[in-house]
Amino acid sequence: MPRLLNASKVERRMSTDVENGKNGMFEILTQPSKTLATWYFWIGSLGLFLAVLNLTNNIHPNYHVSWGGLLTFEYTNDAFGSKDTAAAFGVGDAVFIMLCGGIAALGARTLSGEDGIAEWAVSMLTSKWYNDLVEPGNGGWSLIVGTWSMLGSIVFYFYWGITSTTWIDPGVYSWSIAMMAVGLVLRMLASVEQEE
């Protein structure tokens, strides 16, 4: 029968754990795990993509986004301005581009590891993720449905953005994020089932 730990034993183990003292929040954020680095890379890349669309006035049919206003919840300035009267490039654009570029670079640096960026890019292109769309062998149906949900999320967001020029529409984001979350959970469930 398993033994239960009382609070004093747990408290002692946690307080004397050397790794907890070394890996503070700053180190966790600046030296991310592979999972966090993947999120960094893709979210940073999406931010750079949206910044380019904003600079070329293709992010929305009527608006130009002020990233400073958007990220401060309009504390510093308005988040959305008319395309006709808005500045083509502002300080908020530069800060947003540097922030997204830094996040994407940090993710890419961590993901590339010791092999280098070129080897990492080749491994992304030669990945066999598409097998998860049709082969229920290793992960079962949750892997297939999860992969399709993630792919559907990306296709939906880009299709809607291209056809309607509404890359910043909250409804599109909501559907895309919900589909991506379902896909991630189902894929994680498939890996847990696989280990058992």
Low-confidence stretches: 1-20
- Return the string of H and E elements: HHHHEHEHHHH
Rounded Rg: 21 Å
| Helix vs. strand class | mainly alpha
Give the overall shape, derived from the CA principal axes: globular
| Largest sheet strand order | 1-2
Main pleated sheet: 2 strands, antiparallel
Mean pLDDT across residues: 80
Structure description:
The protein is mainly alpha-helical. It has two domains: 32-125, no CATH class; 128-196. Helices cover 66% and strands 3% of the residues. It has nine helices and two strands, in the order H-H-H-H-E-H-E-H-H-H-H. It has helices at residues 7-15, 18-22, 25-30, 34-55, 67-71, 91-112, 117-125, 140-164, 170-195, and strands at residues 63-65, 80-82. The radius of gyration is 21 Å and the shape is globular.
Jot down its keywords.
196 residues, mainly alpha, 3% strand, two-stranded antiparallel sheet, disordered N terminus
How is this fold's topology laid out?
Elements: H1 7-15, H2 18-22, H3 25-30, H4 34-55, E1 63-65, H5 67-71, E2 80-82, H6 91-112, H7 117-125, H8 140-164, H9 170-195
Antiparallel strand pairs: 1-2
Give a summary of the structure in a few sentences.
The chain has helices at 7-15, 18-22, 25-30, 34-55, 67-71, 91-112, 117-125, 140-164, 170-195; strands spanning 63-65, 80-82.
